[in-house]
Amino acid sequence: MTNFITNFLEVFYVLIGLIMLFAGIESFRDKENPARIGTGLFWVILAVIFAGGRLLPYPVIGGLILLLGVLSLLKQIKPGNIKGIDEKVAETSAKRLGGRIFMPSVVLAILSIVIAQFTPLGGQIGIGISSVVALITAVWMTKSSAKTAYHDSERMVRSMGTAGILPQLLAMLGAVFTASGVGELTAKAISGVFPVGNHLLGVVLYCLAMAIFTMIMGNGFAAFAVITAGIGIPFVVAQGGSPVVVAAIGMTSGYCGTLMTPMAANFNSLPVALMEMKDNMGVIKQQAPIALTLLVIQIFLMYFLAF
After folding, report:
1. What parts of the sequence cross the membrane (predicted)?
2. Do 20 and 57 fall within a single domain?
C-alpha cells in the first residue's frame, strides 16, 4: 500500500510540473519581458524538479536549485506581461453562476477531508484528487475550454512568481535546522540566561519563541520541532505542563507569527501578488494587531490550562 501511495502521489507532482512547464513556455513567448529567458528557465527548471525529481540524482537537483538562486540573485525572474482576464466575461459568468461559483472550492475542501479521514490514501493524495475534481467541476460549470484552463493556470503561477516556491524552501530549512541541532543550542543559550522552574516565564518564552521563529522561517511546523525541543519541553513540559495542551497552544502561538511575516509567502505574499496590491506589506499590516492580541491570549491559555 505504501508503494502504491508513493507512486500515486508522484502523479500529482508530475501534474504540478506540467503547470510550471506551461508557465515556462508562456514566459519564453513573452517578448515584452526583458528577463523572459531567465524567467522561462526558472519555471522550466522547477518543472523538471517536480516532474522528474525521483529520477534525478540528488546532486543534480541541488545544482538546479542553486541555479534558481542565481537567476533570482541576478534579477532575471520577472512576471512580465501577463494577460488578464476578460472583465466582461468574468462579470457575466459571475452573475449567471451566483453562489454556485464557490462550488469548486467546497468540493475541494469536503472531498479532501473525506479522503484523508476515511481512506488509507492520506491527506496529500486527498488534496491532489480533490484539486483535479474541483478543476473538472469548475470547467463543467463555467463551460470553459481547455485553452482557458491552460492560460488561467499558467497566469496564476506566473503571477505568484518566486514566492510560490518559498514554502517548500522554508520546509527544507526547518528540516536542516532540526537535523543540525539548533533546538539543543537554543535550550543551552536560554537556560544560561533564564532560570528553569518559573511556569509563567517558561510559557512566555515558549510562546514568544514560537511566534518569532515562525516569523523567521515562515513555517510554523518547522519552528515547532526546533522550539519545542529547545524550549517547550525543558521549560514547560518538564516543569509539569500538559504535553497535549502545550503542543496545541504552542502551534497556535506559532501561527500568530505566520500572520506577521512576509516569509509566510502562501499567506501574506501570494495574496499581494494575486490581487495586485500596491502595498507589499498590506496584508501583514491588517493582520498584525489581531495576531499580537491572539498571542497574548495564547500565553494566558497555556499558563492556566497546561498546569
Report:
1. 12-28, 58-77, 97-118, 124-142, 163-183, 189-213, 288-306
2. yes
